[in-house]
Amino acid sequence: MSAPTPERKSASEATDARWREAARESAGFDPADEIRATRGRLAEPAPRVVTGRFGHDVWNLDDYAFMNDVEAPATVHPGLWRQGRLNNEAGLFEVAPTIYQVRGLDISNVTFIEGATGWIVIDPLSGGETAGAALAMVNAHLGERPVRAVIYTHSHWDHFGGVLGVTTALDVEKGRVEVIAPEGFLREAVSENILAGTAMLRRATYMFGALLAKDARGHVDTGLGKGVPALPSAALVAPTREITLDVEALEVDGVSLVFQLTPGTEAPSEMNVYLPAQRALCVAENCTATMHNLYTLRGAQVRDALAWSKYVDDALTNFGELTDVLFASHHWPRWGRDDVAAYLASQRDAYRFVHDQTLRLANHGLTMNEIAETLSLPEGLAASSFNHGYYGTLSHNAKAVYQRYLGWFDANPAHLNPHPPVAAATRYVAFMGGAEEVLAKARDSFAAGDYRWVVEVVNHVVFADPSNEAARLLQADALEQLGYQSESGPWRDFYLSGAMELRANGTALRDLPGNALNPSLLGALTPAMLFDVLGVRLNALLAGDLEFVARVDLSSPDETWTFGVRHGVVHARAGAPAAPTLRLRAALRDFAAFVGGRDPDATLEVVEGDATLWTRFRDALDTFAFGFELVLP
C-alpha cells in the first residue's frame, strides 16, 4: 500500500466486498418500517435548527440531509444507512387518538398525551432547547395546553434533561405540575453521571461521534437516533411521585395509566406505561428498533439480560392482548396486536439468547473473546432488523454477560497481571524486531484487508513511540476501514473518532476541565453523594498523613454530618461526631459547587479548629482533565 496520509480515505476493496455482502442481507428486511416511521405525521419539524445559549446549533436536522433519497455508499454499512434514513423521518406524529410524539429533534422521542386539562409529557428529551421546540410545535399544531404532568420512564439523561423546556421548577414546587418516575430514579439518575462522570463523558465523545463531520465518511447515526444535542441546557427536577409497586395504576389529569416497573433492564430505574383507554403501551427504552446495550461503550454498570428478557415477557403477558399500538422512547411505533406481540416476543428472545448462550459457552470453558467471536443470532431472530446491532451488538453484549457473571479475568494466569499498555507495547515492539519491521508486516496485513490485526499490532508501535507518525497514520487508516464496515453506530463512531485523533496527533479537548459538574445536577445531589464525590477526588498520595474529623453544618435543608479523612480515605455519615477536630459550616448549594469543582473557592467556613487541616484537604483534591487521550498513551 502507499504511504498513509492524514486525509480521510475512501472504502478499500476489502471494505467494498463486506459492504456488498451486508447489502444483500439488509435487502431482506421488512419494508413496512418505512411506513411505520412516517405513519401519522402531522407536521415536519419546525424549526429544523434549534439554537442554544451560546448562539450555537444545539440541533440541526439539515446536517443529515446528505442521507435523503440516496443509496448507501461503500463507506457506510448498508444496515446502519437504512437505520439512519429511517431515523431521519422527523416531525410531529399522531400515535393514537390523544397520543402524539415529536421525533427527530433529539436522540430520543418526547410523547405528549392529551389529558382533561393539559398535556402529560413522557420523557422530555436531553435539553431545554429541544424539549421547548417540541412543546412549541405541539401547541402550534394541536392547540395550546398547559403541561400538567411529566413522566420520566427511566434514569438516563436524554429522558429527563429537557424538563425545564416543558415546565418550570416553580410550577412543580407549587404542585401545578406532577413529576412521576420509577422507584430509585433520582439516585440512579445522579449516581451514573457523577463518580466516573469525567471518564464517561470523554468516552461518550467517541461513542456518539461528537467531533466527527456529519457525512458519509463520518457520523451518520447512532443507531438509536441521529445523535446527541450539542451543549444543551440540561436540568433535573426531582420527582414528586415515585412508582413503587411492580404494577401500579394512577389517574393523571383524567387519563388512566398503568405503570410496570422494570428495574435493572436498560436502566437501573425504568418502567413501562400502559394506557388502557387508548390500548397503547409505552415500552420506554426496553424495546427499540435495534439490539440495545447490555454494556454501553461510554462505560456504565452491566445490565441484566435475564431480567430484561423476563420484564419484556411480563409486558407481553400483561398487556399484549390489550394493546393495539406500541410506542417507545426511541424510533417509531408498531400497530396491530399481532405485530406488537411478535415484536415483544422477538426482542424478549434476543436478550434471553445472548444471556443463555453466553453462559452455555462459558460453562464449556470458552473465554469472553472466544464467545463473542463464536455467537451469531439464529435465523429467526436475525431476520428482523430490530434485533440487529445498530446500537448495541451481539459481540460486546456477550462480553457484558460474561463480565456480569465472571468478571474481567478469564482464569488464564498469563492474563492475571499483565504489563500496562506502554510497558507492554515497548516489549512487544522490541520482540517483533523494532517498529519498522512491525510496520512493514502490518502494511501487508492492511493490503490483505486484515484491519483488526493491523489495529491491534500497530497500537503497540503507537504506545511504544507516539511520535511515530507512520504508525499513527497506518493505525488510523485501519480504524477508518473498520468504521466503514461497522453495522453499529457507536462502533463506527469509536473507530472513526480514534482515526481522527491519531491523524491529529491527539485530542482537541485536552485543555477542557473535567470535574465541573452541571449546576442542575449538582443541585440534585444529596449530602451523602457529595461526600462520595470528594472521596473520588482526594489524592491519597498528596493527602499523606492528613487526619481529621469534622462536624459539617449544612443549611437549606439543615443537616449535620460527620466528615473526616484518614489513611487517604474520606468517610462521612449523617449526624454530629462526638469529638470533632474541626467544625465547618456552609450552605448546601455552596458545598455542592465546591465539591463539583464548579466553584473551587466556594465558602466553607471553618468555625472551630485548625483551619490548616481544611486547607491541606482542599489542596489534595484532584482536578480532572476532560480531554485525556484514548488512542495515545
Protein described:
The protein is of the alpha+beta class and 633 residues long. The chain has three domains: 31-380, Metallo-beta-lactamase domain (Metallo-beta-lactamase, Chain A), CATH 3.60.15.30; 418-503, Serine Threonine Protein Phosphatase 5, Tetratricopeptide repeat; 519-619, SCP2 sterol-binding domain (Nonspecific Lipid-transfer Protein, Chain A, 2-Layer Sandwich). Helices cover 38% and strands 16% of the residues. The strands form four sheets. An eight-stranded mixed beta sheet has the order 1-4-5-6-7-8-9-10, covered by helices on one side. It has a six-stranded mixed beta sheet with strand order 11-12-13-14-15-16, with helices on one face. It has a five-stranded mixed beta sheet with strand order 19-18-17-20-21. Helix 4 (128-142) links the parallel strand 7 and strand 8. Helix 9 (337-363) crosses helix 12, helix 14 (435-447) runs antiparallel to helix 15 (451-464) and helix 16 (469-485) packs antiparallel against helix 17 (489-503). The two termini are 27 Å apart. 46% of the residues are buried. The model has no long low-confidence stretch (mean pLDDT 95).
